[in-house]
Specification:
- The structure is a single chain.
- This protein has 236 residues and is an alpha+beta fold.
- It is built from six helices and eleven strands.
- It is 24% helix and 32% strand.
- It has a seven-stranded mixed β-sheet, sandwiched between helices. The chain has a four-stranded mixed β-sheet with strand order 8-9-10-11.
- Helix 1 packs across helix 3.
- Bound molecules: coenzyme A.
- Coenzyme A binds next to strand 4, helix 4 and helix 5.
- This is N-acetyltransferase domain-containing protein.
- Pfam families: Acetyltransf_3.
């Protein structure tokens, strides 16, 4: 008899937001210690807990998707995005029902998630995942999904009371382009500098210095020399 697991065709795998009606499917995998073993959350032990978790955690989550086969929940994939100046970076997490392990489900779902999340957040540049060095299956998932191993963080994660060495893995947006600043043509510009600064309050790429400059008018000079370039680092 051939005991090899049957590969799940990628077209069978979908990801979508969680629904309250996922509760009975959800508990089948979220109630399994083997599935939650490497996760930050505890195994779900009752239907009520499952309902509360879907309602209070999964549904309000900014980007948590149910991994589905035939629209039935068999796992999750989520992205946690940093805020403020670090909004360009997000973390990836996932798990799959034990029944479906080694059929390519996590890899299929991670690929879908990576594709969607870079579209959903055009200013997201980097996705990263921390993986326990002993979690070979998860490292393989990341490798197959295009993540690159970047380093080892020793004694880094505390997972359920155990301090673990973890590998850091990263993937980057293929489409991200840094916003380009408009080029100000100084010779054509004859507006009032004070107004311009108030109105636009942004950096212009100085065509003379090819560097971000705050442009000021310097009274009394001829047109070309009326421009005073002040190098700035942070103008919003
Ligand atoms: C990690 C996990 C999501 C993988 O899901 P999956 O659907 O089985 O993943 P895939 O089938 O897409 O890929 C698994 C790969 O790991 C390989 N693998 C599995 N166990 C392995 C092991 N012990 N050693 C080496 N490779 C292993 C499989 O052979 C497969 O690779 P292949 O396609 O080259 O044969 C799943 O095991 C799981 O839910 N684990 C618990 C939660 C978890 O660890 N989440 C990740 C936290 S970072």
């Amino acid at each position: 008899m051939n005991n090899q697991p049957i590969e799940t065709h990628p077209s069978q795998i979908t990801i979508r937001p969680f629904k309250i009606t996922d509760v009975d499917d959800f508990i089948l995998w979220a109630g399994d210690d083997q599935v939650t073993r490497n996760l930050m959350w505890e195994t779900i032990t009752s239907r009520e807990e499952a309902l509360a978790y879907i309602q209070d955690v999964c549904i309000p989550h900014p980007w948590r998707r149910s991994i589905c086969i035939d629209d039935r929940s068999i796992g999750f994939v989520s992205i946690f995005r940093e805020s403020g100046d670090d909004r360009h970076r997000a973390y990836l997490g996932y798990a799959v029902s034990r029944e479906y392990w080694n059929r390519g489900v996590a890899t299929g779902a991670v690929k879908l998630a990576v594709n969607q999340v870079f579209k959903n957040y055009p200013d997201l540049v980097r996705l990263q995942a921390y993986v326990d060095v002993e979690n070979q299956a998860s490292q393989r998932v990341l490798g197959k999904s295009g993540f690159v191993k970047e380093g080892l963080l020793r004694k880094y994660s505390n997972v359920k009371g155990q301090i673990k060495d973890v590998g850091l893995n990263g993937e980057f947006s293929a489409t991200y382009k840094a916003p380009t600043e408009p080029v100000l043509n100084f010779r054509e510009w004859n507006g009032n500098c004070k107004d311009m600064r108030k109105k636009h309050r942004r950096q212009y790429l100085c065509k003379f210095h090819n560097t971000p400059c705050l442009v000021r008018k310097n009274k009394g000079a001829d047109l070309e020399h009326r421009i005073q370039h002040v190098r700035v680092t942070n103008v919003h």
